[in-house]
Design goal:
Rossmann fold; six-stranded mixed sheet; 6 helices; binds 2-phosphoglyceric acid
């Protein structure tokens, strides 16, 4: 049975400032670097054979720290990027107008194919995230990959595996450097295909990780 670990990157400058990143980027904070080291310590015990990361800077940096601890290289996959949040990228969550806040809410309130102007829909993101996950099935037998991606991207992936709609991802709290795991099983009795073993575990972190939307 293939086990795939899913890690959200460490805290970034803009996470801490409540600024929307999407496919824009900001550097890990000191706390984010520490979180990455702590998740790397845990990853070292998991027999990870491949570290595959979104090509944005914050996931690359987190992945490098994990890969070094596990003694493997990082492979980049742009399909693991965060949702493209169009015209709202770089903006502070607290300064959005009512109309802009309405665009942002479309992503999580069930509006079919809702998207921020010039951005991507959750359905589109779900398709590319599933394609990246399914690519793990082509790795050599015995592989145990770890994917480094983003809050909404991973939330959408786990939600849709559970059978929830793509826009339900905010029902899952995936904090910075949390670990989730999905397994691929063939079973005549249980659901065949991907199943969720755990989601959003932060027991390896020594300080509460930020949830920039909840605070
Ligand atoms: O893009 C962002 O600002 C956030 C949204 O949750 O995602 P992440 O920090 O995980 O990239």
């Amino acid at each position: 049975m293939l086990q795939v670990y899913l890690v959200r990157h460490g805290e970034t400058q803009w996470n801490a400032e409540r600024r929307i990143q999407g496919q824009s980027d900001s550097a890990l904070t000191e706390k984010g670097e520490r979180q990455a080291e702590q998740v790397a310590e845990r990853a070292k015990t998991l027999g990870i054979t491949h570290v595959i990361a979104s090509d944005l800077g914050r996931t690359r940096r987190t992945a490098e720290i994990i890969a070094q601890a596990c003694g493997v290289d990082v492979t980049l996959d742009a399909r693991l990027r965060e949702l493209d949040m169009g015209v709202l990228e770089r903006r502070n969550l607290d300064t959005l107008s009512e109309e802009e806040e309405g665009w942002r809410r479309q992503l999580v309130n069930g509006t079919a194919d809702g998207r921020i102007p010039d951005g991507e829909s959750m359905l589109e993101m779900s398709e590319r995230m599933h394609a990246a996950l399914n690519a793990c099935l082509d790795l050599p037998p015995g592989s145990r990959p770890l994917l480094v991606s983003h809050g909404m991207a991973l939330g959408c992936l786990v939600s849709t595996i559970l059978g929830l709609p793509a826009w339900a991802e905010r029902r899952l709290r995936l904090r910075n450097c949390s670990i989730s795991r999905v397994d691929h099983q063939q079973s005549p009795w249980l659901a065949s295909g991907w199943v969720v073993e755990m989601a959003g575990d932060i027991s390896h972190l020594d300080a509460p990780a930020l949830d920039e939307l909840q605070r």
